[in-house]
Input
Amino acid sequence: MGAKYTYDESGVTFFYYALTVLSLVVAPATIYLLVGKRSTDTLQKPKTPKVRFRNTRSKSSPLKVKTALLLGGWALIFLLSYKVKTTEIKEAERWDPYEILGIDNGESEDVIKRAYRKLSLKWHPDKVEEDMKEKAGEVMAEIGRAYKTLTNAEARDNYEKYGNPDGMQTQSMGIALPKLLVEAHTSPFVLALYGLIFGFVMPFYVGRWWYNSTRYQKDHILNTTMATFFKNIREHISQRNLIELLTAASEFAEGDLKYDASEEAALNALVEKIQNVSRPHALENFAQSKKFTSKDAWKANVLLHSHFFRVDISDSRLADQQQQVVMTALTLVHRGLLQVTTAHNWYNCSALLMSISQMLVQGVYLYDAPIIQLPGITWKTQHTLYKENNLYSVNQLMRMPSPEQREALSLLNDKQFSEAIQVAKTIPRVEIARAMLTVVGDKAITPSSIVTLIVKLRIANSKSKIVPRKKGASVIDIESIDSDDTVAIESYVANYKKEAVKQAPSEAYCPYFAGRKDSQWWLCFASYQSGKLVVPPVRVNDLESERVILLQFQAPPQKETYRFHVSVKSDSYIGGDVLQEIQMTVVDRSTLPPEPPVVDDISEPEEDSIAAQMAQLRGQQSGARRGADDSSDEE
Output
């Protein structure tokens, strides 16, 4: 038998199909729009006061279009859901001869005949009234068909196998499409729609996705940018040359950030302002890069230095582009240049890049005093404060008594002084509470052993004095453990994961950075002799009160005393970095105490036990095998 195809006349199965496909598109798109881009702190709404803002009107139109499309999609989903709920599904009725005769399945032929006679007497057209004759005729026909099916062996066998006394019927297959879509007068429009979707729309978006995926790395940085970084970066490079290399990124040669000839006059005016500001205060005069001479790199360099020197930009378009350049440069430093330097284990170059990150967030130049981060402190007043009051850093200001603080900031009025002190209190002052090198389980570090670096960081001025701990974590503090107490150290390392609890970082005060920036830190561990990183820097993004960090590395094979630097650098503030030297002495393995002897507590089994009988049986079998071998040797 052939197959018979039927189309969805009522539309209910098509509603199910359309509802499923639409939900698979609209639901993920809604989730992506709501939370997909909230992971980066620069895109979240800042809560600290800002001097510079980023104009987001250019991005509002695409966002409104996406929102409108999603709202339309959800409206269509609700409409289809209503249609699915209210549309009646007509199910095909199954013809059952047993039910028609009013008997159970599998009854004998005598029972079938009695049921047939009984129903014939009731529904025979000659036995009913005139107005019931038509209905009685239809019922009698069904009764007769049921009787013939159950009394005829072949018909009954067909019914049992195929559900029909006439045998196998044509198979009906439904298609979840309304018949309207396949009718002759609508087929050209349907084919045109299919051609538009599968011949243009899908290839266009798939091709664009493929093109972009091949241009970018996993950190969403252009491949050409990373190639430029790899080719031009060196271990011993100045901070100024690093900034020039940063401006050579291909990201600054695309979109709105690309150089436009109409911006030449405004950029030249900015260069003059930067030189006027930098000449009396900076050791290096701003000039165009001699190595990266493209107009795009020059424009990015001008906008970055106008940010470093806090030069006001009158052109609103260039001001918005400046903030885009700053945010892009921060991403390139964190995910691009630092990836290259840490892959080469270059500590000094990595430290310079971390300082550039601070400059980008705070809008300061590399020779600025940390006190300029406070509100009310300008380019001119920072030098006056240093020359007249010997005030350089925020930490220095906070160590002064209140009267001396007011005298040191006498250039500010009372309101400005109050704001400056409030901000100074919020700038975190990190300290290394404990730094320890140990081999877990041993009292000495031997050649090529696995060494564990335990570092405890603390925010001295943290508002939260309670250190969060997980349930079941020990209350032992690493500061209270002696470096020779191997048992306590081993226990602490074993329970380290229980101790660690993620804390929400505080937002950094950065009025010249248009986006939100959370306060984060880098922990670096480098060799003093070689200037190389021993392990890649650890980025600490949840340091609110205190945090313990464990790092492991292999000890050198030579027996010697080594010096290392443990440094903590902020990615948001200048002047708050800390550096501590730590030594490690590698000794010979012979200095370790001997291993304790293993005590064998296994006693001999009793004679009447099953273990003793099994041992005796094994002994007899082995003796018999040895006897057989000896006899064969003699032969």
Notes: The two ends are 82 Å apart (CA to CA). Residues 260 and 414 are 46 Å apart (CA to CA).
